[in-house]
Amino acid sequence: MVKDTRLSTKLWAAANWTLIGFFILNLFAMIATVVTSSFSTRWLGTWLPAGWTTRWYSAAWSEFQLHDVLLVTFQIVFLVVALSGLIGVPAAYALARRDFPGKKLVMLLFLLPLLVPPITFGIPLATVLYQTGFAGSMSGVVLANLVPTV
């Protein structure tokens, strides 16, 4: 393949990379501003922090009880991953190596949550979970998270 060495192509490539670099620079600048402000003693009024503190993080940790939230989150993650593996690995083995009646239907049912936007099955799923009483329980959260993973 012949490489295009025209000046216009090189200028276009340079402009393209300059624009990409400018975008990335601005993205990192915004993230750095938020991170810097999160450790500042005052949130507003100065460009650079007058002092440094972790008070905001400890206040958020205690006020929102993040220890309990993280504990429940990791429990749900472990259960969903374990159940997805227990259901998904045998199903994948059977679908890959066996022929049986209804195989295409089973494959469609497994792929359906990936093809359908989450909002279209999330609201009916939430309705079913509320009607059955699972909505406020750990098992309901695990079931709701199993739908897109399995």
UniProtKB/TrEMBL annotation:
One of its GO terms (cellular component) is plasma membrane. Residues 70-150 form the ABC transmembrane type-1 domain. It is found in: Cell membrane. It comes from the Bacteria. GO terms for biological process: transmembrane transport. The chain crosses the membrane at residues 12-35, 69-93, 105-123. It is a multi-pass membrane protein. Keywords: Cell membrane, Membrane, Transmembrane, Transmembrane helix, Transport. This is Putative spermidine/putrescine transport system permease protein. It comes from Bosea thiooxidans.
